[in-house]
Design brief:
- This protein is α/β, with parallel strands linked by helices.
- The chain has one domain: P-loop containing nucleotide triphosphate hydrolases (Rossmann fold), CATH 3.40.50.300.
- 51% of the residues lie in helices and 14% in strands.
- Helix 1 packs antiparallel against helix 4 and helix 5 crosses helix 7.
- The longest helix has 26 residues.
């Protein structure tokens, strides 16, 4: 009986490992990062208590958002991936993308008549969507509209982690100077969100 229980335990463990490996591939992280690898002693501008409290992943259960703000090089992407990897390890479907890549995918699928399929599979299917580098490249009016649709579709339905090097007051510069659209988008992002402001020099 002990031998049989051991075999069942090993099979269960193997299934869990296969599932985690599959979810990690599906997440499309550029590289796996962990919280243990993040040096809070160097990144002194990172609010450690706030970040550690978010590791419980309860924000995902409540369909809330995390917004990581700060200058380039302070480890925003590292923390976003680390949070995503924690979710993967908990059996949660995650997808990582940059804002530019997401908009390229959506605009391409729109031209090819596959927009709804791409939106449902790539944007709505993951329980946690991570969008990195908002503000690094400006978007056209049409791209800004597509990005707004992503936010609106996921609003109060699924969680997101967003990173940006710009304060919220400058986001309209990224979204074609459309202050009304940017304001409506931020209303949805910030309604249920945890804003993590990271200060300091390059990480």
């Amino acid at each position: 009986m002990d031998f049989l229980e051991h075999l069942l335990h090993e099979e269960k463990l193997a299934r869990h490992q296969r599932k985690q490996a599959m979810y990690t591939r599906m997440a499309a992280f550029p590289a796996v990062k962990t919280f243990e690898e993040y040096d809070f002693t160097f990144a002194t501008g990172a609010p450690q208590k706030q970040i550690q409290s978010l590791r419980s992943l309860s924000f995902i259960e409540r369909n809330e958002n995390i917004v990581l703000l700060g200058p380039s090089g302070v480890g925003k992407t590292h923390l976003a991936i680390a949070m995503g990897y924690e979710a993967v390890r908990a059996g949660i479907k995650v997808r990582f993308t940059t804002a530019a890549d997401l908009l390229l995918q959506l605009s391409t699928s729109q031209r090819q008549g596959r927009y709804k399929t791409t939106l449902n599979r790539g944007v709505m299917a993951p329980k946690l969507l991570i969008i990195d580098e908002i503000g690094y490249l400006p978007f056209s009016q049409e791209e800004a509209r597509l990005f707004f649709q992503v936010i609106a579709k996921r609003y109060e339905k699924s969680a997101m982690i967003l990173t940006s090097n710009l304060p919220f007051g400058q986001w309209d510069q990224t979204f074609a100077g459309d202050a009304a659209l940017t304001s409506a988008m931020l209303d949805r992002i910030l309604h249920h969100s945890h804003v993590v402001q990271i200060k300091g020099e390059s990480y």
